[in-house]
Amino acid sequence: MTSFCCALLAVVSVFDYPALQPRHEAYKAQMLQSIRSSDALGMRMACMKAVEVFPEDPVWNYNLACAYAKGGKFDSALKSLEKAVRCGYRDSRAISNDADFKPMSDMKEFHDLLDLADKLRDVSVTSGPLSAVNAKESSPNSVIIGERNLLWDFDKACFIAKMELDIGDGGGNSGDLYLNRDRGHSSLSTKEFPGLTAIRMCAEARAKNLDLDFPNTAFPYPVFGNCSRALVSGPLWRSLPRALVTSQAFRLKALSHFYLSNQIWVFPVVNDCPPLGKYGDVFASQTPYWIATEGRSWSDQYYLKAALEVSRSLKPEVKKEIVARGHLAPTVQTIIRKSLKGVKKDDDYLTSKAHPTAFPANGLDMAKLKAAASSLTAESIPPVVTINGIAIGETKPGEKPEGLPELSYVSPCAWAFVLRKPETTRTFIIGVKGENVSEFAFSVVKGPHSAVKVELLAQDVAKVTLNKSLMTGSSRIDVAVFGKSRTSVWGAPAFVSFAVLDPASPYCDPVLLGAGNPAESKK
Predict the structure, then answer these.
(1) Are 332 and 241 members of one domain?
(2) Is residue 129, in this structure, part of any structural domain at all?
(3) What is the pLDDT of residues 461-503, one digit of tens each?
(4) What is the mean pLDDT of residues 321-334?
(5) Residue 455 has pLDDT above 90, yes or no
(6) Which residues fall within 8 angstroms of residue 289, CB to CB, at 6 or more apart?
(7) pLDDT higher for 105 or 129?
(8) What's the mean pLDDT when you consider all of the chain?
(9) Max alpha carbon distance in the chain (Å)?
(10) Are residues 394 and 368 in the same domain?
(11) Is 504 exposed, middle or buried (0-12, 13-18, 19+ CB in 10 A)?
């Protein structure tokens, strides 16, 4: 069976791979279309093109072996499979059980390759795509990440850093990483947080601007990061968080992965929200993948420090469990939102008081925040809710959308729609899921309540009915979904956002109207 798992590459320079991501996506789309239409030749041609571009990628060589086998070209299949094994594809059980290789199952050469995969299973790859080595501290509490420490994951569209730290018992901020992506413009002093390790990219990465703006690297330890940059001029002006839900929404694949693997990011919204934004809140959607702060440069510092305070206030054994689950970012989000000064009682957490588009300056009750973090136990870790799917009530079978799509993006914990159809009443069925969740809550946390009705159809399914005529100007409604276990409080929100556009309003986002993408962000 053709493999769709990620390809981790570092053939010429790992820093070249972000630019090659679109070609990988194109070849993958061609291959999948060929598989759906039972076109063995088309599948083989797509895989051959991919191997020409990514010659040492174990996954593409494996896919090519599958394509050859499906076409009865067994000698070529064996050669490509051997290349895949030597490049790092060494799961002999998966290879043996792959239906594409069933016609070869009696061949001695095929079983020799299974033996080779077993023999090499625990042998380090010394060259090619899987040959990255662990980075270590270059100076106390500082690590420089270079080409030899990075892989590129095409599946998640991000780098993967290989590194090793001595974190002791994991108390305080030991094992936490700090990453600044504005080249020190709003850099945190790590001395305030003993145990915190600063990460820097090597000179070659900086020369390619891979250390700027949007997060792009997965790490094996918790990450706390910030960037105080924005595109502040031109018709497509926007902050980093607004770019991530509009012109750069393709990056949500990586950002959602970071969120669910212990990365906490903080960005200012600059002119996209009050008090600096003269047009008010101009976001068309919201996600839990970062903390957006009111104001411009340095406004991110307050909430970055608050997130680090949560981390070091956790009991070491509780933090270890949270990190093992990949839920540090949702846990930090939960505690910070519950610790906002306007959140006076438990019920306030399910309202707009806890879920602003941008968090206010000095908005936290720090004593409450520390107490919430330090009192957390393994049993009271809040669960994470993800969106299982959304059905649009007015969609007819086989109907093809005209013009710009209504669905802006889909991600595990955030979906966004722009309501472009003329119908006044719109209906959406939202399904959610969460591990160890005993109860879900669906709540409107943004927009006019008179314009939206939420009805529970089942514990994990809700019907949302919208009246567009009551959504004036360019505005939005956010429906947040929460989950809790029998021993926890409500956890971090997942968001479903619905926006309407009015080109006659004082501001209407040109990107959502179909304009091009903005250039690189600037201070």
Answers:
(1) yes
(2) no
(3) 999 999 999 998 778 999 999 999 999 999 999 999 999 999 9
(4) 98
(5) yes
(6) 244, 252, 255, 256, 258, 259, 265, 329, 411, 413, 414
(7) 105
(8) 92
(9) 73
(10) no
(11) exposed
| Domains: count for the chain | 3
Q: What pLDDT is attached to residue 397?
A: 54
**What CA–CA distance (Å, rounded) separates 43 from 517?**
33
DSSP string, 195-228: T-EEEEE-HHHHHTTTTSSS--EE-SS-EEEE--
Amino acid at 90: R
Radius of gyration of the chain (CA): 24
State which amino acid sits at residue 103: P
pLDDT for 521 = 45
Does residue 327 sit within a domain?
yes
Query: In terms of domains, do 359 and 394 share one?
Result: no
Structure tokens that stand for 26 in this block? 């194109």
**Start-to-end C-alpha separation, the chain:** 48
Do the beta carbons of residue 497 and residue 284 sit within 8 Å?
yes
* Cα–Cα distance for residue pair 238/232, rounded to 1 Å: 6
Report the alpha-carbon distance of residue 480 to residue 210 in Å, rounded: 33
Q: What angle do CA 273, 274, 275 make, to 5 degrees?
A: 140
> Is 60 inside a domain boundary?
yes
The edge-to-edge listing of strands for the beta sheet with 223-226 is: 142-145, 197-201, 177-180, 223-226, 263-268, 291-293
Is 491 among the domain residues? yes
Q: Kindly state the average pLDDT of the residues 151-156.
A: 89
Residue 31, domain CATH: 1.25.40.10
CATH number at residue 403: 2.60.40
Q: What is the mean pLDDT of residues 301-325?
A: 97
Task: Dig out the tokens for 294 from the structure.
Answer: 């009111």
Which range of residues forms the domain containing residue 190?
142-380
The answer to whether the CB of 184 falls within 8 A of the CB of 331 is no
Is the domain of 174 the same as that of 48? no
Checking if the pLDDT of 438 tops 70, the result is yes
